[in-house]
Design brief:
The chain has helices spanning 31-43, 65-81, 93-101, 119-126, 152-169, 189-197, 199-203, 235-247, 258-275, and strands at residues 10-16, 48-52, 86-89, 106-109, 130-133, 177-180, 210-211, 252-255. By secondary structure, the protein is α/β, with parallel strands linked by helices. α8 (235-247) links the parallel β7 (210-211) and β8 (252-255). The chain is globular. Bound molecules: pterin-6-yl-methyl-monophosphate (PMM).
Length: 279
């Protein structure tokens, strides 16, 4: 699959090999179970798979890179050997390197290179696309850092631009950068909605944009209150956000269930084509 040539928004399927992710923690811990889950996500419409071994949910405690690498490496090796396109979701340069050596073709770093000082240089050396996500602080502290002035999206853009400059200074090529506003990372409920309404501004920075709304807490307010505590109940709301993000021109949506978003991004593609005059 050509990562940057698709006319429609791509669907990135989430594969968390962690005991403690908020959305699916503990579900895919065995390597065979994780590989089967990855294959299923692809069968249901995922264009690429985002494999992670460390939870970044608010308040999560960090694990070492060796433990993280052990969790993901065999699964990445198997999935890529079967022809699947894999990104590695990691804060650690050593894990990113091991994952790319095992076949991953994208590095996804929710800290935008602020967590591990070796990350940007390592990605530059590996020469792979890099998803640079906006956040503030660490998972343990980010909730307290969700304070912005009048222009929330302007602040996020300025902070992303500073990280882009750092990435380029370390040798990452601009055409290998993908930006992500980091929904739920140092952002509270309404702030996430605000970001979604201004995706066009984020895209004006000139980079592909990834949107990761899937199952996040700000979607809990959408579902009936008796279901709100179960993240899986947010999958329909997630698909609706996928349609809107794709309509706004997002490069990809990162989701736990591929099938609803597979159709959502195709609805948006048909919509955009019809607007452009295609019959
Ligand atoms: N969200 C999570 C993890 N990794 N990566 C990117 N680029 N964007 C996100 O929004 C994002 C991410 C948290 O969700 P999970 O724990 O269910 O994977």
């Amino acid at each position: 699959m050509e990562l940057f040539a698709s006319l429609r928004t791509l669907v990135m399927g989430v594969l968390n090999i962690t005991p403690d992710s908020f959305s699916d923690g503990g579900s895919w811990l065995s390597p065979d179970g994780a590989v089967a889950r990855g294959r299923r996500l692809v069968a249901e419409g995922a264009d690429l798979l985002d494999v992670g071994g460390e939870s970044t949910r608010p308040g999560a405690t960090r694990i070492d890179s060796t433990t993280e690498t052990e969790r993901v490496i065999g699964v990445i090796g198997q999935l890529t050997a079967q022809g699947h396109v894999v990104s590695v979701d990691t804060l650690n340069a050593a894990t990113a390197r091991a994952a790319v050596e095992a076949g991953a073709v994208v590095v996804n770093d929710v800290s935008g290179g602020t967590s591990d000082p070796a990350m940007l240089g390592t990605v530059a050396e590996l020469g792979v696309p890099y998803i640079l996500q906006h956040s503030r602080g660490e998972p343990a502290t980010m909730v307290d850092l969700a304070r912005y002035g009048e222009d929330l999206v302007g602040e996020i853009m300025a902070e992303l631009e500073a990280r882009v400059a750092a990435a380029v200074a370390e040798g990452i090529r601009e055409e290998n950068l993908i930006l992500d506003p980091g929904l739920g990372f140092a952002k509270e409920g309404p702030q996430n909605w605000r970001v979604l309404t201004e995706l066009d501004r984020l895209q004006s920075l000139g980079f592909p944009v990834l949107v990761g709304a899937s199952r996040k807490r700000f979607l809990a307010e959408i579902v009936p209150s008796e279901l709100a505590s179960d993240p899986r109940e947010r999958d329909f709301a997630t698909a609706a956000v996928s349609a809107i993000a794709a309509r706004a021109g997002a490069w990809a949506v990162r989701v736990h269930e591929a099938r609803p978003s597979r159709d959502a991004v195709r609805v948006a593609a048909a919509w955009r084509a019809a607007e452009g005059g295609a019959q």
